[in-house]
TrEMBL record:
Name by which UniProt lists this protein: Sushi domain-containing protein
Position of the signal peptide: 1-19
Taxonomic lineage: Eukaryota, Metazoa, Spiralia, Lophotrochozoa, Platyhelminthes
Keyword terms of this UniProt record: Signal
Length: 168
C-alpha cells in the first residue's frame, strides 16, 4: 500500500464519483467505504470487452478502500494494488426505485433487481445504474445516460425512471 500513498497527491479527487449510499471514513489518504444501513454491498468487475455485460455480485466484504490517484480519480485498492472492480451499495428491495424506461433507438437496457446496465446501440457507451435510497444513480458518478437525472427533466432522455411505464 505504500506505493499507493505515493500516488495519492494533495490535489483532491472529485468525491461525487464515489458511490452513493455509502458512509466514508478517512485514514490519511485512504477512504473506507461502508454501506448505509438497509443497503447491500455489491462488487462490479470491469468487463474485458465493451460487448460484455457483467452484472455485479454480492461483495465478499462489507467495506472497500479507495485512494485518490494522481489527484484525478478514486481507485479501489487492496493489499496487492489497484482493485479491478467497483464497490457500491444498493437497496435490498428492488422495487424502491421507479422502473426505468428505455428508448430502444439509443440503447439496450438490462435490469436485474436494483441494478441496470444500459448500453448504446453502437456499443460504444455503457453505464451501470443502481438504486440506492429509492433513487437511480450512475456508477462512477454523473447523470443517467444523456445527461438526464431528475424525473422532472426526463422527457427527452433515452433512459428515464417512470413509474407509470413498463420495464423493457
Amino acid at each position: 500500500l505504500i506505493v499507493f500513498f505515493s500516488l495519492a497527491v494533495s490535489l483532491a479527487c472529485d468525491p461525487s464519483t464515489l458511490p452513493k449510499g455509502v458512509r466514508i471514513s478517512q485514514n490519511g489518504p485512504v477512504l473506507k467505504l461502508t454501506c448505509d444501513p438497509g443497503l447491500q454491498p455489491l462488487e462490479m468487475a470491469y468487463a474485458t470487452s465493451p460487448a460484455d455485460l457483467l452484472f455485479p455480485v454480492p461483495s465478499k466484504r462489507k467495506f472497500a478502500r479507495y485512494v485518490c490517484v494522481d489527484g484525478a480519480t478514486y481507485q479501489r485498492i487492496n493489499a496487492q494494488g489497484i482493485e479491478r472492480s467497483s464497490f457500491f451499495c444498493t437497496d435490498v428491495q428492488s422495487n424502491l426505485c421507479d422502473p426505468l424506461e428505455n428508448s430502444a433507438e439509443r440503447g439496450h437496457l438490462r435490469v436485474e433487481g436494483a441494478v441496470a446496465i444500459w448500453q448504446s446501440v453502437s456499443g460504444s457507451q455503457r453505464s451501470v445504474l443502481y438504486c440506492a435510497h429509492g433513487v437511480w444513480h450512475r456508477l462512477g458518478g454523473g447523470s443517467l445516460p444523456y445527461g438526464e437525472a431528475a424525473p422532472s427533466a426526463l422527457a427527452s432522455s433515452p433512459l428515464t425512471p417512470l413509474a407509470a411505464h413498463s420495464l423493457i
